[in-house]
Amino acid sequence: MIRSFAKRLVSQRSAILALTLTAEICLPITLQVSAPDAWLSLLLPASILGVLGGFAFQQQGWKEPRASAMWLAAGMLVLFVRIGALGEAIRSSILQTCSLLLASLLRPEAPGADLASLAAWVSAQQELGNQIGTFALRASGWLAAMLQGAVSDDPAARALWLALGLWLLAVWASWRIAQRQDALGGMVPTTLALGLILTRIAYNGWALWLHLTAFLLLLAVTLLAKLLRDWEASRTDFADSITLDSATSAILVIMLILSSAYVVSAFSVKDLIDRLREKQQPIASAARDSGPGSYTAAGRGQGIHEQEEQALAIHPILAGPHLSQALVMYVSTGDLPPMQHAVDITVPHYYWEQANYQTYTGSGWVNQPAIEASSPSGTRFLPNSAPKYRYMQATVTLPAGTVGSAYWTGELFRTDQPLRVVWRAQPDLNAAQPGPEVLGGADMMAAFFDGEAAGPQTRYGFEAWLPAVDEEALNAAPAIYPAWVRDNYLQLPYDLPDRVRALARDLTAHEATPYGRAVAIESYLRKIPYSLDVPAPPQGRDAVDFFLFTLKRGYCDYYATSMAVLARAAGLPARLVTGYSSGSYDPYSAQYVVRAVNAHSWTEIYFSGIGWIEFEPTASQPAPARERFQVPLDITQELTTLKSPSTRLPLPAGRIRAIALLALALPMVLWCMWLGFDQWRLRRMEPAAAARQVYLRMRSACAGLGGTGPVGETALEYSDRIADTLAERANASPLLLSLVDPIPRMLSEVTRLHMRALFAPTPLSKADRRQAIRTWNRLRWRLALLHAGMALTRPSTLRASAPSTVPDGRAG
Asked: Could you give the strand order of the β-sheet that contains 314-316, starting from the edge strand earlier in sequence?
């Protein structure tokens, strides 16, 4: 009675499914440290659906490995499309294909409409192909880098490979456990993967203990289920309480095993020896002296005013500021001479940098402890030569009595006044070669006037290096960064919301280069409305998440912070920079007039071999003066030109190959999709209906091969006649003979199952249905090749009489 009640309460199959799910989901839970953007939205669903799908196939009677292979392939395809953000491109491709077909069928008299539809179709296929190729290239590049031991910060590629791995493990476990009842073989790969991950990342080990508990319980349940089946099959008598007794014993043994394992893992001889040594040796505690040349965020540095020091240490994101028209400075760059008459001129756009920030906290930015050094006037801060940079000079005029921050643009080379410079890393200016980084690894945080040495300054000049690279050079920059860049500018808070990371991954999934990813993020943010009338982020709410998903409007601090965070989430080193935008240009004095209202923050992203490049995500600021490097496609004009023989111009060879491949690939993809759907539909039919459908398809495929038979011909007579006719015609070619040889047996097998479905006293089984489908799959392609071979060898054989009439099924 107890056994019956327990069986009603929870079946063995439900218990096995629940334990398999519990053991599998421990792996994506553990991966939330290394893939926080994907573990909840991609990795966890991949594991759950992989297990559920495997058990569902077994429930439907699909016990062949082919079913698991199909489920595995389908999941891999879905993951590639989802993580690669290919859904919109696929939808556009399908819509343009349907539009092209409708245009050619419904409007044959309007060639212009056909050309327009063809142009749109080619563009859609080209875009889809580009996105697939780009994402596949990124995925293969990430995998190659990992196999070589290199570090690649590509969240989309990382999410793809992790999701594919979890999907493979889940499908394998469900297949072995649900269809083979092999819990050990099904779960060992997951256990090994979990142990390998835990050796490489620091994470709470409770997921491992949960996995081991579920694993051991799964072994016990599957073993008990197998014993009960064997006893019932051999009619062996056993006690009704065997299930309850076995479950109790298994739980006690598992608790003992896990407790012993925990005690052994927690005990360390090395830790015990270290503790004994600490007791014998007094601990000398001394406060760390920061030294006379250091700057810390907690205390006041030397030579820096307290207000400036506080602003450099912390930059919170506050409510929208109220800016005034107070004068901040004049800047003369010498780009243009003074003009007596105001004309419509275009002037360069500059950013006047004051400070940059390294660490994002969720509510703002802070700077870590850095080095502060006094620099006399004329001191060089960078190497004398900087490839890919151009040299510039400027003069800054400040209001009388101004002291504090110095302002510059680009990378500060030197000034004519003494400064106190705050460094994260100082370059080695004495090195013969600056190394792979053109600026020698210099990382300047801010610079301040040394008031004691120079007094209040109202005018100073500076020299700087400005990046002079084009789109092609930025696109060619590799996604490999120096250690100091990775350590300082890829940091993100652990509790950054997953949807922020997922947004960065989706925005950049189609981009092959770091520059393409940066532009994609910048373009997305510039579509958000600009407003100064916004509140500060709520207490405990991440500022970027609040701006992107709730506020959806803001000012420069919100924009620049969001771009820096999204760029870091996409694997791009980024930092926040504060200062002033260009201001208004006065052509009479050839100066930029910078006021308090021009206070601004923007984002800089690091490119290997180049350095820091400015990006402008704020919608109210001028768009950056750069365009994506691309070849425009005017396929409509080209196709129109081709219609005129006198002006016919050849398409480029690469485009011809792309169009040809797309034209061939699309029908093949659609045909494969149809075959998969057709196989699924046949397997869902009743066995008798499936056998009847397969027989009708065989008759249709054989039409024209055997001519018209006599009236009253049975199904068996028809198959024999077709076999004899094919044997006679195949004697003309050894190739046709090899194709025809297995066909008579297959025809007989399909006909026999059809006759059994009609006249046998017992209904067909699922095994008979699988046999009929399998035989038809093998017969179909032989008949197709036979038609083609007969057309090449003896064309006259295809001119047969009218196809035979399909009997109603009762002729035999």
From this structure: 314-316, 364-366, 359-360
DSSP-assigned states of every residue in 684-713: HS-HHHHHHHHHHHHHHHTTTTS----TT-
Helix (H, G, I), strand (E, B) or coil at 552: coil
Structure tokens at 438: 């053109």
As given in the structure block, the two tokens for residue 767 are: 């095994």
**Residue 375, SS3?**
strand
Which pair of structure tokens corresponds to residue 471? 């789109």
CA distance 619 to 598: 14
Q: Which of 793, 708, 716 has the alpha carbon at shortest distance from 749?
A: 716
Closest CA to 808 of 754, 768, 743: 754
Show the tokens assigned to 324: 């005034």
CB 522 within 8 A of CB 563: yes
pLDDT digits (tens, 9 = 90+) for 523-569: 999 999 999 999 999 999 999 999 999 999 999 999 999 999 999 99
Three-state DSSP class for 170?
Answer: helix
d(CA 153, CA 493): 16
Let me know: does 328 contact 594? Beta carbons within 8 Å: yes
Could you tell me which residues come within 8 angstroms of residue 74 by beta carbon, excluding any fewer than 6 positions away? none
Mean of pLDDT values over 619-646: 49
778 or 551, greater pLDDT: 551
| E strand segments, 243-333 | 294-295, 314-316, 327-332
Segment (H or E) for 448? strand 443-449
Evaluate whether 529 touches 509 at the Cβ level (below 8 Å): no
Confidence of residue 640 (pLDDT cuts 50, 70, 90): very low
Please tell me the distance from the alpha carbon of residue 512 to that of residue 747, in angstroms, as a whole number: 52
Sheet strand arrangement including 411-415: 411-415, 459-467, 389-397, 327-332, 591-595, 584-586
Residue 760 backbone class (left: φ over 0; alpha: ψ -120 to 50; beta: rest): beta
State how far the alpha carbon of 573 is from the alpha carbons of 488, 523, 570, 636, in Å: 8, 18, 9, 41
Helices 155-174 and 44-59 cross at an angle (nearest 10°) of 30
CA distance 779 to 758: 22
Q: What is the pLDDT of residues 94-116, one digit of tens each?
A: 888 888 777 666 655 554 445 77
Mean pLDDT of 688-710: 78
**Residue 38 pLDDT exceeds 80:** yes
- Is 61:67 a contact under the CB 8 Å cutoff? no
pTM, two decimal places: 0.69
Q: Where are the beta strands (DSSP E) in 225-321?
A: 294-295, 314-316
pLDDT at 258: 62
Structure tokens at 620: 């109210």
Task: Work out the angle at residue 139's Cα, subtended by the Cα atoms of residues 85 and 574, and round it to the nearest 5 degrees.
Answer: 80
